Amino acid sequence: MKSFVRTITVIIICMAAIMLAAACQNEGIGAESSDYMPSLSGTSQDQNGEVLKLNGQIKYSPKNYLMWDNWYVEMNGMVHLIHLKWLKSGVNYDMEAENKRGFGHAVSTDLVHWEERSDILKVSDSDNELDVDYRYTGSAIVHNGRCYIFYTMRKWGGQRIGVAWSDDMENWTEYAGNPILEPDSEYFITFDKNNPGTSNNKLWGDSIDCRDFLVIKDPDGEGFYGYFVASAEGEFTTPTAVVGLAYSTDLLNWEQLGIVYRPDGVSMPEMIDVFEVDGKWYMTLTTGKNNGGINMFSDPYVVRAQIYAVSDSPKGPFIEDKEDNVVFGGGTYGSGYSSRSIMFDGIRRMLYTDNNGGDAVLSFPKNVGLNDKGQLRAYYASDLMESIRTGELTTEITAQPSTSFAWPTHGGHWLKKEDQAYICNADRNSWQACFFDSISKNMELCFTVDASSDCSSFGIVLSNASDLSKPESIQNIIVLDRENDRVYMTDYMWEFKNARYFDFDDNLEYEIRMILAGNTVEVYINDEFVFNSAISNLGRNHTGLFVNDGSIKINQLKLYKVESENKKS
């Protein structure tokens, strides 16, 4: 009898596996994607019979391409990521892939793990004569069970807005009446009526800005607001990029209402996002000093950032506070850009394009909220991010490198006490690091800095060196500089690499979190996202702590191994 039951069980399991494989093919999870990542929605069993969820890729990037601007929509129980794709060095492309490619497409059930799907809305499938060049950024919205994707049509330098729709996110219909919007001459620089291939402003030549269309539901009516980047006559001598507003009741016919945001010090903001938080309306935009402005950021260390402006209404005007206008950013162009948000599980989440050592990848999700000063910030999404942990690592002190090249001197001595606290007292103008015994390529380190600590700075060290006794073994140092109110990246030579401003208060307890995944690193203070950077992740790293000029006490330290970029580690 037992043998018969076992036989029947095996047959059932085999049939289930065959049915699951067929279902995956029917859902479009075919050879193009499943050969390098598992199904998002499937399940399996480990050797102990425990059910495991099969997840897609973290730190998502499209196969054979780089990603760029991205946006999201939830439909049929899935979050759909739509993104621009860019050519990747070393890959051979045909002309269609180079010039007529469509938007990248991936799906997720948790905003952390993503599975790539086939491209959608290829330019080569369009017969609109105004839509012959590479399509730019847009947005998506679901209305009456149908998904509408808005995108930037482009013919040489001329930009217009087009729309397409789908009931299944696979088969798309481009609107025969495209374009649905081009700039109104009452407010914006637009096409010359006598020469449609050029603008009506001699400084703009054949360039007409009309891109990055963002559509949101009118919270007080049945219609929709649409925000777009355009250009307008400047307040001083030259035109500048602005954000325009339009309104529609059917998503096809739009009335332009004028300018709702005119940047102060920024000549070209892009990637508009608009949402409500605690009764105020916020507009975020991507820009950098290479976009034509110099004194544009409240953070003196930033060269590219996601900035924000505030309004009492989605109709604007949106006003930028130059005393605080940075949501996130960095001192290099490897600190993330092109952010958009989505409501997920009742919380607004923000994702952006990150830099993975040269390759662009999708960031981990962040929660959107206000700090105790009423400033817009991104926060650690604990309900989503704990899913990437694959185990806890030991944190016994295994090495304390010397701090001098000339002689094996030390600036202090780290101790792990019986109560699991870590303490060190560094000499004046000296520093001391320690490393833990565990190694991992990807990790999350969490700890609390006791309020009694009086050091000038402290932080985290990383190394994959075999000999951890010398200062040059410390390859990456993340410095939390209390004395100078900043967080920055350096190495054993203490050369300044990347930085963000952070206002440290004395005599406060700080909860610190560092996540290293691939060639990106993130730092949180009291769950506020304060620093991110591309980093040379040289393999399986030791991690540890350092302190400079004074004492420190570390409590509640935990070190977790986390998933790799393509599969669970």
The total strand number stands at 38
CATH architecture of the domain at 388-562: Sandwich
If helices are DSSP runs of H or I spanning 4 or more residues, what is the number of helices?
A: 4
- Helix amount: under 10%
Class by SSE composition: mainly beta
The average pLDDT is: 87
Low-confidence stretches: 1-54
Specify the overall morphology. elongated
Instruction: Tell me the Rg in angstroms.
Output: 26 Å
Q: Main β-sheet: number of strands, strand sense, barrel status?
A: 13 strands, antiparallel
Strand proportion: over 45%
Can you tell me the CATH topology of the domain at 388-562?
Answer: Jelly Rolls
C-alpha termini separation? 40 Å
What is the class of the domain at 388-562 in the CATH system? Mainly Beta
**Annotated CATH homologous superfamily of the domain at 388-562:** Exo-inulinase, domain 1
List the defining traits of the structure above.
single chain, 569 residues, mainly beta, Jelly Rolls, 13-stranded antiparallel sheet, five-stranded antiparallel sheet, 4 helices, 38 strands, 7% helix, elongated
Q: What does this protein structure show overall?
A:
The protein contains 4 helices and 38 strands. With 569 residues, it is mainly beta. Among the domains are: 2-53; 388-562, Jelly Rolls, CATH 2.60.120.560. Strands 26, 27, 28, 29, 30, 31, 32, 33, 34, 35, 36, 37 and 38 form a 13-stranded antiparallel beta sheet that branches. Strands 21, 22, 23, 24 and 25 form a 5-stranded antiparallel beta sheet that branches. Strands 3-4-5-6 form a 4-stranded antiparallel beta sheet, with no helix packed on it. The radius of gyration is 26 Å and the shape is elongated.
